[in-house]
């Protein structure tokens, strides 16, 4: 079988090598030869001889079968070749597959190796993971414990911060609150959640917010802490001063997050300082009181010594008595200086301008000054350099004190010669510009000392440091303050050894004697519908009771917006508008009403101020103005003039006459000073004592709140706040007839008064200390009316 395969392969290889044609010819020859050989052999065996025909027949047979043999062999060869090629391909594929198998086997070995390594690594990783899980569980446990501890510490810190009376807060770079403690919540009247995200302008008033924003910007711009003091206001209106410290706030990576703020209430410290100052003033007041008490016997010494000087005395007695007299006068000057020092120290210097006959005043100063100069053997001259006004409005006592002090100093420091006082005046538009000059021929003042002589306690000394004369060094300082309060000044020029000249200039109004106005008639009771806008409950109670007792119907609004929404011009005959309302002024309400309606009843302003000129009220849309508390006479006069279309004839009109049944009982001077008896008497006659008692109870309930807020404004030195609270106190006091408290509160609410700030402490103390006593007097008076 193997030989056949070899021959077959040899045959195929030969066919391929020779080609089909050559192979066919060679095969044909081989077949013919084979056929001839076979024929010859067979013929020889069978016949014993070979004929030519046998050879031809053999050749012919060989040629005949040759194509079929070639065809058959060709087909076989082709199939074998195809089989070979397929086999070759299969072998090639097998080799490729074997190569791949070897490669895959190698890869598999590599993968198995890697897998084994990976399994080892995974086992190690699993061990590491288990270790990490254990570490993580431990860390989680520690973190939970840390979070619990942190939560406890945070709660403790929050409790500590909330328990602190100091303000603690933090704001971000945008100026928005990010957190705060309870003290801050109480100050702003907002919870921490409500406060977060708000800016200072959303929380505080415009004035406070502006300063807070400015200081925040300073911290951000300079990147340094800042400490300052600022007044802040609680929701109830109480003010407190805080020492605020702001510091930049950073994250761990150094990025600035905003600022931290801390505020300590130092109001008590300020109040303690004020108390110390008050104690100092009280000490000075004690000295002043002693000085006043000593002046009584001193005046007797001065008067008796002057009388004795006019009797017959020998020279020695006259000298002794003159010494006593001059010493007593000098001692009196010292007492005056001490009194004024006390007032200056307590900022209580005040002026009480009144009409003054200027010609008589100048003549009086001439007589007194001449007597003072003659006691030292000096000459005194008065020169009138221009025409002087007849009557001016000035505090004559204070002006006399100033000139007396200057002339006294002039005679004190002059040994020879005399003193000359000149006076001149220029009148300009009902204002008199008056100049006094006091010139002496005394020792003079060194040029280096001229700018010091108006300082408190300063005294002129000579080169040996000896006082030129005895004195307190107070008079010139106080005198200058008084003249400056009069709108003028004191100046000095001097040469050593030649004398000094003091010049006083003041500007005062020209006045005439006031003419008393006739009493206005009072209307009878007429029922009206009155619309009243007032925000103080006590004033409402008093005014409403009075108006209703006169037969009127009263509708009340306590705010401007409420009044605008409620008002119907057809429903009311008269409108009473308080000027100071919580949300707007009475002038604003009047303006809006006149814009909204074509027809309006009479609009009358209500004010707690003393009305001297109604032109301002009329110019701002009012038809008239009344002072609070309302009086029967004032309100009925307004009704008569503005509401009634036809005035009453004198014969037909009825005059409302109110008699005081107990007028003899309330004749005590103190009661008349403390109480508005005219208002109270008419009020009690109309409505009885019960509404007054009710008003007193309401007053007693409100006053502690008013005073607490007033005290905080005083400590804050908030002029507007003081004015507003004093105005409320004045209105409340006037509503129940506490005239004295009303008058003091009127001063306290008037910053335009001279030396208002210097005197406000005393006025507030007078209100706080006096209203209880005044209420007792009022209750005693009411008891007598029952």
Automatic annotation (TrEMBL):
Q: Which residue ranges traverse the bilayer?
A: 20-46, 58-77
Give GO MF terms, alphabetically: protein histidine kinase activity
| Coiled-coil residue spans | 77-142
Keyword Transcription regulation present in the record's keywords: the answer is: yes
Location in the cell reads: Cell inner membrane
Membrane topology, as annotated, equals: Multi-pass membrane protein
What is the protein named?
Aerobic respiration control sensor protein
List every position bearing Phosphohistidine: 727
PAC domain sequence ranges = 226-278
Per the database record, which ranges form the Response regulatory domain?
A: 529-643
Keywords attached to this Swiss-Prot or TrEMBL record, sorted alphabetically, are: ATP-binding, Cell inner membrane, Cell membrane, Coiled coil, Kinase, Membrane, Nucleotide-binding, Phosphoprotein, Transcription, Transcription regulation, Transferase, Transmembrane, Transmembrane helix, Two-component regulatory system
Gene3D superfamilies in UniProt: 1.10.287.130, 3.40.50.2300, His Kinase A (phosphoacceptor) domain, Histidine kinase-like ATPase, C-terminal domain, HPT domain, PAS domain
In the UniProt record, does the keyword Iron-sulfur occur?
no
- Per the UniProt record, the source organism is Photobacterium pectinilyticum
Every copy of the HPt domain together lies at 688-781
* InterPro entries from the UniProt entry: ArcB_TM_sf, CheY-like_superfamily, HATPase_C_sf, HATPase_dom, His_kinase_dom, HisK_dim/P_dom, HisK_dim/P_sf, HKR_ArcB_TM
Q: Which reaction does it catalyse?
A: ATP + protein L-histidine = ADP + protein N-phospho-L-histidine
Q: Which residues carry this modification: 4-aspartylphosphate?
A: 578
């Amino acid at each position: 079988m193997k030989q056949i395969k070899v021959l077959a392969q040899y045959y195929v290889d030969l066919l391929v090598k020779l080609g089909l044609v050559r192979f066919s010819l060679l095969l044909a020859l081989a077949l013919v030869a084979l056929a001839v050989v076979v024929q010859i052999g067979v013929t020889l065996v069978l016949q014993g001889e070979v004929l030519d025909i046998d050879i031809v027949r053999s050749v012919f047979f060989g040629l005949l079968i040759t194509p079929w043999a070639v065809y058959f062999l060709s087909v076989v060869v082709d199939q074998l070749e195809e089989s070979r090629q397929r086999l070759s391909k299969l072998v090639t594929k097998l080799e490729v597959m074997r190569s791949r198998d070897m490669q895959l086997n190698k890869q598999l070995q590599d993968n198995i190796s890697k897998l084994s390594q990976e399994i080892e690594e995974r086992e190690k990783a699993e061990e590491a993971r288990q270790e990490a899980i254990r570490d993580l569980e431990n860390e989680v446990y520690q973190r939970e414990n840390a979070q619990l501890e942190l939560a406890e510490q945070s709660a403790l810190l929050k409790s500590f911060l909330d328990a602190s009376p100091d303000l603690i807060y933090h704001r971000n770079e945008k100026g928005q609150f990010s957190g705060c403690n309870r003290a801050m919540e109480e100050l702003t009247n907002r919870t921490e959640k409500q406060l977060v995200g708000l800016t200072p302008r959303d929380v505080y008033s415009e004035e406070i917010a502006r300063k807070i924003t400015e200081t925040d910007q300073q911290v951000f711009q300079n990147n340094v802490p800042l400490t300052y003091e600022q007044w802040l206001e609680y929701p109830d209106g109480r003010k407190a001063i805080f020492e605020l410290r702001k510091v930049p706030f950073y994250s761990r990576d150094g990025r600035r997050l905003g600022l931290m703020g801390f505020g300590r209430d130092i109001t008590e410290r300020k109040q303690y300082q004020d108390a110390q100052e008050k104690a100092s003033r009280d000490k000075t007041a004690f000295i002043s009181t002693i000085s006043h008490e000593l002046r009584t016997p001193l005046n007797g010494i001065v008067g008796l010594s002057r009388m004795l000087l006019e009797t017959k005395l020998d020279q020695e007695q006259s000298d002794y008595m003159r010494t006593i007299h001059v010493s007593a006068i000098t001692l009196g000057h010292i007492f005056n200086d001490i009194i004024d020092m006390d007032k200056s120290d307590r900022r209580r210097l005040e002026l009480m301008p009144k009409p003054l006959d200027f010609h008589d005043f100048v003549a009086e100063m001439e007589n007194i000054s001449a007597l003072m100069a003659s006691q030292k053997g000096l000459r005194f001259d008065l020169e009138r350099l221009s025409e002087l006004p007849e009557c001016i409005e000035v505090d004559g006592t204070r002006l006399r004190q100033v000139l007396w002090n200057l002339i006294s100093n002039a005679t004190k420091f002059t040994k020879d010669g005399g003193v000359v006082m000149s006076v001149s005046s220029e009148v300009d538009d009902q204002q008199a510009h008056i100049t006094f000059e006091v010139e002496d021929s005394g020792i003079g003042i060194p040029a280096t000392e001229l700018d010091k002589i108006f300082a408190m306690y300063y005294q002129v000394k000579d080169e040996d440091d000896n006082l030129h004369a005895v004195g307190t060094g107070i008079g010139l300082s106080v005198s200058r303050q008084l003249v400056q309060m009069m709108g003028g000044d004191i100046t000095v020029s001097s040469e050593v050894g030649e004398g000094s000249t003091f010049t006083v200039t003041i500007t005062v109004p020209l006045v005439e004697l006031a003419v008393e106005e006739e009493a206005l008639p009072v209307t009878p009771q007429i029922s009206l519908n009155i619309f009243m806008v007032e925000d103080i409950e006590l004033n409402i109670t008093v005014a409403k009771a009075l108006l209703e007792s006169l037969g009127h119907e009263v509708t009340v609004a306590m705010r401007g917006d409420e009044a605008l929404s409620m008002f119907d011009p057809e429903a009311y005959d008269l409108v009473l508008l308080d000027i100071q309302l919580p949300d707007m002024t009475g002038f604003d309400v009047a303006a809006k009403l006149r814009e909204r309606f074509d027809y309006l009843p009479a609009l009358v302003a209500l004010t707690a101020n003393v009305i001297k000129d109604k032109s301002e009220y009329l110019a701002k849309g009012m038809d008239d103005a009344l002072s609070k508390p309302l009086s029967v006479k004032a309100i009925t006069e307004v009704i008569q003039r503005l509401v009634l279309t036809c005035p009453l004839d004198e014969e037909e009109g009825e005059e409302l006459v109110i008699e005081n049944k107990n007028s003899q009982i309330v004749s005590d001077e103190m009661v008349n000073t403390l109480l508005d008896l005219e208002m109270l008497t008419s009020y009690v006659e109309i409505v009885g004592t019960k509404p007054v008692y009710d008003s007193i109870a309401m007053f007693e309930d409100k006053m502690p709140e008013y005073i607490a807020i007033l005290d905080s404004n005083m400590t804050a030195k908030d002029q507007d706040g003081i004015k507003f609270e004093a105005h409320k106190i004045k209105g409340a006091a006037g509503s129940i007839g506490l005239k004295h408290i009303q008058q003091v509160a009127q001063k306290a609410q008037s910053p335009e008064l001279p030396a208002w700030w210097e005197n406000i402490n005393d006025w507030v103390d007078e209100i706080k200390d006096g209203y209880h006593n005044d209420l007792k007097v009022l209750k005693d008076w009411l008891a007598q009316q029952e």
